[in-house]
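TASK: fixed-backbone design
INPUT:
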């Protein structure tokens, strides 16, 4: 990814999304950033015409995977889950543990349920870098996460149609 890439330059397949349900799970830790990610994500889904958007909040990024797993176990009508969070490096190795566990956990939930579970988690060195990716000069990772969810649903539909 180039340093000047705008995360909001995304491709959304042109189709009817009114039958689709997408869950958005936002971590409350680093609220200024995650709120901006949520706004970008939900606005993108609404503009695309997604029929139902379910919204949830968990304490931090670490909890995203567990909640996504619970949600998919309880609600079989969800077509995709978007996980939004922000982990900013501090002075301890905490950043590496949380970032790695969050990424692996989200991937495992997606594979377990065969449902797109999108990693919309910023892992940055500074708050300024996070702001640049949550509506700043690099766009909004929430927009990218929403578009990724729609692209994955589209591609899964293509698989089902070709079988």
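OUTPUT:
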């Amino acid at each position: 990814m180039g340093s000047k890439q705008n995360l909001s330059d995304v491709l959304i397949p042109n189709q009817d999304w009114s039958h689709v349900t997408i869950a958005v799970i936002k971590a409350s830790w680093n609220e200024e950033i995650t709120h901006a990610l949520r706004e970008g994500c939900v606005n993108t889904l609404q503009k695309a015409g997604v029929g139902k958007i379910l919204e949830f909040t968990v304490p931090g990024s670490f909890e995203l995977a567990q909640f996504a797993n619970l949600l998919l176990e309880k609600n079989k009508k969800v077509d995709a889950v978007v996980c939004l969070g922000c982990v900013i490096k501090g002075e301890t190795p905490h950043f590496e543990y949380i970032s790695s566990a969050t990424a692996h956990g989200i991937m495992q939930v997606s594979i377990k349920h065969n449902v797109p579970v999108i990693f919309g988690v910023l892992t940055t060195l500074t708050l300024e870098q996070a702001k640049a990716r949550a509506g700043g000069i690099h766009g909004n990772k929430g927009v990218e996460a929403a578009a990724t969810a729609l692209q994955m649903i589209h591609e899964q539909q293509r698989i089902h149609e070709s079988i």
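COMMENT: The mean pLDDT is 89.
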